[in-house]
Design goal:
Blueprint: H1 9-25, H2 31-63, E1 68-72, H3 82-88, E2 97-100, H4 104-113, E3 118-119, E4 129-130
Parallel strand pairs: 3-4
Antiparallel strand pairs: 1-2
């Protein structure tokens, strides 16, 4: 809790801006956290570059696999938005989505047999992750628009 007592209107406005900045941007980092961020920033470009390279290699490998029906990765020339993305960004990221030509049970068995990625609901961590999209998306798959399936109520955090 913060209690702020000010005498003048100018000081009040300045104080309000400060309080809003702290509220929305957060407080000051502790020295160790700041050091770790600075240290991580020095190699960020190398890690992102490797992430992009690995994702493109994985997407190409999956695209050529007979059991994979569709690969979604902006770095692939076959992606419908590839040329637009190529004009706007320099890397295509590390997220590769794909669909396999199996039923739900065989797809779940495939995911459970994976050794490297971990099942996770978000991409906020440091390790490789995958999500069972069949439980998140309607039966028509990832390629169909989901506006009728999802609505604004689904964006609640």
């Amino acid at each position: 809790m913060m209690l702020l007592v000010v005498a003048s209107a100018d000081l009040r406005n300045l104080s309000l801006q400060f309080v809003l900045s702290i509220t929305f941007l957060g407080g000051a980092l502790n020295p160790n956290a700041a050091y770790l961020i600075i240290r991580g920033m020095k190699t960020l470009h190398l890690r992102v570059q490797q992430q992009n390279t690995t994702a493109l290699r994985m997407a190409k490998l999956l695209e050529g696999h007979p059991k994979v029906t569709q690969v979604y990765y902006l770095g692939l020339v076959s992606h419908p938005e590839h040329y637009v993305a190529k004009q706007q960004i320099t890397g295509f990221g590390g997220v590769v989505s794909f669909e396999i030509d199996e039923d739900l049970m065989k797809t779940a068995k495939f995911i459970d047999a994976l050794k490297i990625p971990y099942i996770a609901p978000s991409f906020g961590g440091l390790k490789n992750e995958e999500s069972k999209a069949a439980s998140h998306f309607p039966p028509q798959g990832l390629s169909e628009p989901h506006s009728s399936y999802y609505n604004k109520q689904d964006n609640r955090g």
